[in-house]
């Protein structure tokens, strides 16, 4: 008697039925995935839409130096643009250059001294704003006129109001001396630019 089984026997039909069910479930899963992506909000599958931001810091200190500094960052498509820093600072020495930096902390419990060091999340040496490697908070010098007033507006490529290196909640500081931009021969040229003490400062907060 032949032991060959019919290709249309119960066992073969069971295997075919099982394979058909597996194929159906795989197809259903693929369709569900595609439909899910088509219905999912665009912001969840592409980079989040960029929103322009503004910030402000009101500066004061133990000296007569005071002022207001504004920060604004727009958008280039989904990406953030460079940050614009502008403001007016009074009470400076006439026709002087004074170090101008963002420091790491927003702590004003001990005046400007409790704001910590320059904001430097990338752990580079101090430098000029144009240097490829520098502290994120290195903004060079502001220059006063013959009346001791500095009015300024410039853009910076590293400073940001968003993301992991945001400066919001940190402190902007005007120093008593000139920043040598890391090019001097002083022991602190590569850490502070030998810019001296802290004349005035203000915590950076979100603006209307």
From TrEMBL:
<keyword id="KW-0560">Oxidoreductase</keyword>
<dbReference type="InterPro" id="IPR036423">
    <property type="entry name" value="SOD-like_Cu/Zn_dom_sf"/>
</dbReference>
<feature type="transmembrane region" description="Helical">
    <location>
        <begin position="23"/>
        <end position="40"/>
    </location>
</feature>
<keyword id="KW-0479">Metal-binding</keyword>
<comment type="function">
    <text>Destroys radicals which are normally produced within the cells and which are toxic to biological systems.</text>
</comment>
<dbReference type="InterPro" id="IPR024134">
    <property type="entry name" value="SOD_Cu/Zn_/chaperone"/>
</dbReference>
<comment type="similarity">
    <text>Belongs to the Cu-Zn superoxide dismutase family.</text>
</comment>
<keyword id="KW-0049">Antioxidant</keyword>
<dbReference type="Pfam" id="PF00080">
    <property type="entry name" value="Sod_Cu"/>
</dbReference>
<keyword id="KW-1133">Transmembrane helix</keyword>
<keyword id="KW-0862">Zinc</keyword>
<keyword id="KW-0812">Transmembrane</keyword>
<feature type="domain" description="Superoxide dismutase copper/zinc binding">
    <location>
        <begin position="65"/>
        <end position="204"/>
    </location>
</feature>
<keyword id="KW-0472">Membrane</keyword>
<dbReference type="GO" id="GO:0004784">
    <property type="term" value="F:superoxide dismutase activity"/>
</dbReference>
<dbReference type="InterPro" id="IPR018152">
    <property type="entry name" value="SOD_Cu/Zn_BS"/>
</dbReference>
<dbReference type="GO" id="GO:0005507">
    <property type="term" value="F:copper ion binding"/>
</dbReference>
<dbReference type="InterPro" id="IPR001424">
    <property type="entry name" value="SOD_Cu_Zn_dom"/>
</dbReference>
<keyword id="KW-0186">Copper</keyword>
<protein>
    <recommendedName>
        <fullName>Superoxide dismutase [Cu-Zn]</fullName>
        <ecNumber>1.15.1.1</ecNumber>
    </recommendedName>
</protein>
């Amino acid at each position: 008697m032949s032991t060959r089984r019919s290709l249309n026997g119960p066992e073969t039909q069971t295997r075919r039925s099982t394979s058909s069910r597996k194929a159906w479930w795989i197809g259903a899963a693929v369709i569900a995935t595609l439909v899910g992506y088509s219905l999912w909000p665009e912001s969840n599958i592409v980079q989040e839409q960029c929103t322009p931001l503004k910030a402000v810091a009101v500066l004061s200190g133990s000296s007569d130096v005071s002022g207001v500094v504004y920060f604004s960052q727009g958008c280039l498509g989904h990406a953030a643009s460079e940050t614009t820093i502008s403001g007016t600072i009074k009470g400076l020495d006439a026709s002087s250059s004074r170090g101008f930096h963002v420091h790491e902390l927003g702590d004003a419990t001990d005046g400007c001294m409790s704001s910590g060091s320059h904001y430097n999340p990338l752990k580079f040496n101090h430098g000029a704003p144009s240097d490829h490697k520098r502290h994120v908070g290195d903004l060079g010098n502001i220059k006063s006129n013959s009346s001791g007033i500095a009015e300024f507006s410039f853009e910076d490529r590293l400073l940001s109001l968003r993301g992991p290196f945001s400066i919001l909640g940190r402190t902007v500081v005007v120093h008593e001396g000139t920043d040598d931009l890391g090019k001097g021969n002083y022991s602190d040229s590569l850490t502070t630019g030998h810019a001296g003490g802290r004349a005035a400062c203000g915590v950076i907060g979100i603006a209307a």
